[in-house]
Specification:
Number of domains: 1
Helix content: 55-70%
Strand content: under 5%
Structural class: mainly alpha
Distance between the termini: 16 Å
Shape: globular
Order of helices and strands: HHHHHHHHH
Low-confidence stretches: 3-7, 87-92, 181-196
Number of strands: 0
Length: 206
Amino acid sequence: MQPERLVETSSLDDGLSVFVSVRARLFGIAYRMLGSAAEAEDIVQDVWLRWQTTDRSVVLNPPAFLATTTTRLAINLAQSARLRRETYVGLWLPEPVDTSSDPHLGAERGEALEFAVLLLLEKLSPTERAAYILREAFNYPYENIAEILQLAEANTRQLVTRARKHIADGRREPVSSDEQKRLSMPSWPQPRKEILPRWKVCLHRM
């Protein structure tokens, strides 16, 4: 094998190893941002494709880079999804995902996992949602959240504080009987039958 080919293969292996190690967290961020397992998978797939074409030699902190890319893509998609849901007839609820088999999907703080909280997150702006999720679910330092959202740290703290208040206020609001049934007895979605994601194809070829 030619030296150039060896370097290319080694770079791909290293990039795949890093991606696989943080994939569960990336999905967790995207899912909590979007409330849709299908959309979260699409975001993760997009992040993987971007990661493949990134000059990884200049990336100082790959996990932070991947989390930042995931969050920003999710914010963009959440903004368009919010417009679609404003015209949706009936009550929109997030897709529940059973995270019990993978503790990494369960985040680092349990409250942000609750299905009711996912529903309340829909009432936040996409940027507020991202700040709240990164802080409450994954315990990111405010400095890092500010870098991801490209905001001042003081503004990031305000976003999280405001989001906490909205969530707390929402918990105190009465829930309709129909909504309560949906919240207390979610039906877990069946895995989608689809083409194997490209990052998994690479993994199987190793």
